[in-house]
Each structure stands twice: as structure tokens, then as C-alpha cells.
Design brief:
Helix content is 33%, strand content 28%. By secondary structure, it is of the alpha+beta class. It has a single domain, classed as Sulfate adenylyltransferase (Roll). It has a five-stranded mixed β-sheet. The longest helix has 14 residues. It comes from Tropicibacter naphthalenivorans. This is ASCH domain protein.
């Protein structure tokens, strides 16, 4: 029997919940990449944590990635968190994200994403997280 989100949170009270992306299609695509093992890293604008009040990922903490409908998809454990400026992104971290051809493709995609979610600039701070899959609820 599948675990409910409430059961998962009860078992992992420190866990945060989140969705990848900003729409159902993108969320599903990213979850598929994580499940396949191609995606082991992600980024988010620091404003999501400072201005919007979300909890910053912490090394060792396990969080629940949700499907767009709010059902649990994956339990992920953070293995690294660093902040950098948008302009400081590098090819190695882009490759770990699993969804981009190269740094230029990453820049184009994240310029569009950050423009939709509050704005983008070369000196904006971004959170860069590496993670591992602990449990798949599919």
C-alpha cells in the first residue's frame, strides 16, 4: 500500500515538501529525470528562501518532492548546498542537473524560469543543491 504524504511527514518530521518547476509538465519531466538517475542537482533563486520564506535545503535533511497534484513522488536527501551568482554557474554543475545540453542551454532555460518566477540578473544569488534519491513513492 502506498504511503500518504501525512504518513511520510509523520515519519520524517524535519522534511520539507516542494515541487520541481513551475508547471505540471515541467514538474513531471524533472521527476522523471531524477528517477532515471540523470538529475542529481538543482538550483533555485535565493529569494525563494529569503523573501518567500521557504526553508533552505540542509545537508543530511530528507525532503519530499511532490508531483504537481501534491502527492509524494520522491524522498531526496541533500548532500551539498552552495550559493553562487547566476553568472558563476559552470558546466560541471549544469551536467549534474541532467536536463541541459550545455551552459548556454542552462542560461536560456533558467533566464526564462527566473523571469517567470520573480526576475533574473547576472548577479542574483542562486542556491545550488546536490541530492540523492532515498525513496521512490511511485
Amino acid at each position: 500500500m502506498a504511503k500518504s504524504l501525512q504518513q511520510i511527514i509523520d515519519e520524517n518530521p524535519e522534511a520539507e515538501t516542494f515541487r520541481f518547476g513551475d508547471n505540471p509538465k515541467l514538474c513531471a519531466q524533472i521527476i522523471a529525470l531524477v528517477r532515471s538517475g540523470k538529475k542529481t542537482a538543482t538550483v533555485e533563486a535565493m529569494r525563494a528562501y529569503t523573501r518567500e520564506g521557504d526553508a533552505l535545503p540542509e545537508v543530511g535533511r530528507r525532503d519530499v518532492a511532490l508531483n504537481w497534484d501534491g502527492s509524494p513522488a520522491l524522498m531526496l536527501e541533500t548532500v551539498e548546498v552552495v550559493t553562487r551568482k547566476f553568472s558563476e554557474m559552470d558546466e560541471e554543475f549544469v551536467a549534474a542537473q541532467g536536463e541541459f545540453r550545455d551552459l548556454a542551454h542552462w542560461r536560456k532555460a533558467y533566464r526564462a524560469y527566473f523571469s517567470r518566477t520573480g526576475g533574473v540578473s547576472e548577479d542574483m544569488e542562486i542556491m545550488c543543491e546536490r541530492f540523492r534519491v532515498v525513496e521512490d513513492y511511485a
